[in-house]
Design brief:
About 35% of the residues lie in helices and about 20% in strands. The chain is of the alpha/beta class. It has one domain: TIM Barrel (Alpha-Beta Barrel), CATH 3.20.20. Calcium ion binds near residues 37 and 109. The site of calcium ion has 3 residues, from β2.
Length: about 240
């Protein structure tokens, strides 16, 4: 099957990560899907942001979980990147889903190290409201959180995010009933790709930002390439299909 090209936090060069403007552009560019990170505000709203601390990407400081949505909305979520994007606000999950709901792949990463109570159920509720169950894959570095997702809704696809080159990650993931491995691209060799497929799981890689690696991983047969540079990866796939 053809490798899917997925925009990491939106994945469009020249646009701030995890913002509505970036997701709109990703759709416009023809991405197969997008990946983004979700957390909970103090008042329990599911919002799209990568870091637990707001300092890097927002005009504020401290932990995201200590702010309500309306407090966060008073800050910019785009100015850190360029003054041009000053008007961008932190998006809610619902706002992002409204933009990306017709994409083939919607990869929601639960950034759940602070253990946001009820995050999994809230995300699943929105997935059902938007009727996008078949397009969604939920990933996390917190595998307990993925187990919670599976308990709440066994048919939703889950991907275990790993950073290090683990011994036998396919067995690890399969035993826990996950549907995919999401590996750092430098740890994805042919053996783990083939073994995951043999066990009926997807093998997806992040974050692939240079052409040689995109070409190599497509040849090796990964299912999804998550990239910060959608244009580059989509063009490589196009050239590959035409050669
Ligand atoms: O989901 C792949 C990738 O996004 C995981 O790393 O830190 O960019 O969320 P991070
Ligand atoms: Ca992520």
């Amino acid at each position: 099957m053809e490798t899917k090209i997925i925009g990491h936090r939106g994945g469009v060069k020249g646009y701030p990560e995890n913002t509505l403007v970036a997701f709109k552009k990703a759709v416009e560019l023809g991405a197969d899907g997008v990946e983004f990170d979700v957390q909970l505000t103090k008042d329990g709203e599911v919002v799209v942001i990568h870091d637990e601390l707001i300092d890097r990407t927002m005009t504020g400081s401290g932990l995201l979980k200590d702010y309500t949505l309306s407090e966060l909305r008073k800050m910019s979520a785009g100015e850190f990147f360029s003054p041009e994007f000053k008007a961008e606000k932190i998006p809610t999950l619902a706002e992002v889903l409204e933009i990306v709901k017709n994409l083939e792949v919607i990869n929601i990463e639960l950034k759940n190290f602070l253990l946001y109570p009820g995050l999994e159920a809230k995300v699943l509720k929105l997935v059902d409201q938007f009727k996008i169950r078949d397009q969604v894959i939920i990933s996390s570095f917190n595998h307990y959180s993925l187990q919670t997702v599976k308990k709440l809704q066994p048919e939703i696809r889950t991907g275990a995010l790993l950073m290090s080159k683990m011994i036998n990650p396919a067995d690890y993931s399969f035993k826990r009933g996950f549907d995919a491995l999401h590996l750092h691209f430098l740890t994805a060799d042919q053996e783990v790709i083939d073994k995951s497929h043999f066990m009926g799981m997807q093998l997806n890689v992040y974050t692939v930002n240079y052409p040689e690696a995109v070409i190599d991983l497509m040849k090796k047969g990964v299912d999804m390439i998550i990239t910060d540079d959608l244009e580059m990866a989509l063009e490589i796939r196009e050239q590959n299909n035409n050669s």
